[in-house]
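[step 3/7] fold_predict: job queued, chain A
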Amino acid sequence: MVAAARELLAALDDDGRKRIAHDVDDVEWQTWANPEFLQFDTGLRLEFQPAEVREKALALVRASLSPEGYELAHGMMLVNGFLGEVVDLPTVLNEFSYNIALYGEPDPVAPWGWQLFGHHCALNCLVVAGRMVLSPVFLGAEPNEIDAGPHAGLRAFDDRIALGRQVMTALPEAQRRQATVYEQMVDPAMPPGRVHPGDERLLAGAFQDNRVIPVEGVRVADMPPAARALVLALVERFVLLLPRGPRAARMREIAEHLDDTWFSWIGGHAPGDVFYYRVQSPVVIAELDHHCGVFLDNDTPQPFHVHTVLRTRTATTTAGPGSGTGRRTDEHRARDRPAHPAAPDRPRAGDRRRPQRAGRRPRARPAGRRGARRRTPHAARRAPPAGQDHQRAHHGAPAPVGPGRPAAGRGAAAGRARPGRRLLHRAVRHGDRPVPPRRSG
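[step 4/7] structure written:
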């Protein structure tokens, strides 16, 4: 991993090395984001680099992750390129429309790390004396299958989707009702802002460091043994990106906090249903959400647009349902600097779009229609102090992360090209769902 990072630096010119390098405690750690339009131009944009630099960057990612993890993360980049071809926006969506940055000097002992982020793929990796933490991690796909071209057959998230449903099936009826916080993806019982214009139901996405997220649903320790085992298997799919040794250590840590782990659900759990779930404990938070279309013309959540988030939390007390606490802390709390909750969600009012017909094939969304508009960009939200994810490397070694907020980014929203052609992806048949607010990214 250290060698791969040094080879990447050696492949760059002086200007490239200056742009890619940051101090290990720089606030730029917080500038990762999911949308396809650039918000913070941190590090180097791979699509503008020569082939050798691109290959060295991917080699660093490959050397850091497990083989399965690299296949999944790189698969999101390939899906992004496929989507760009489908909607005729290759200058906005392509395999290398991602930024990479290095933090600290690559070293076997001293703290250092790297960051890769762009549309539907964001990885943050920190290493201290050989101990690794890999989070926050954001992975998503629209669509979640490539059905044409050289990468035809690539699929994503089938395991996480299936295991989530299996957890619900393994629960007794009373616990299924307890786990189901809301029965509909946009439920009349939801408080204002529960469905965000950008993140929809996700709570731990970009710029949500130190957000206060109360636990919901059912406590995993109260589940039948078969359901508890499925929850652990589900979380393991999220930490699959870690190499085998760090992954085993991470799973031991997660299992030790099973008594304080909660599982919550929104939506249906029958085959073909769309849903959201969250696993939350003092040391981990893992989310999966089905989303509306951005570049594909489906106005309700569909199974083929998936967002997932993985966060590392510090081992502090976890609040009970509805208590409003459950704070995630970082090194700044040790210096008497309180963790700062994220800015409140801002719902979009007055969404009157037509419902989606069951079985309708999604189309590429032409430029100039809703797909070309962006409501509230993530960058408009206040970035809180640096988060818990890099508070420690694996096994608890402290990982310094700089305080403060990111400086204003240099990136600007990308322009739109001509209308896209029809999507090649086969639509998954699904019934109507309530229409959620417009999202971005």
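[step 5/7] annotate
Residues 11 and 52 are 7 Å apart (CA to CA).
The chain has a mean pLDDT of 77.
exit 0
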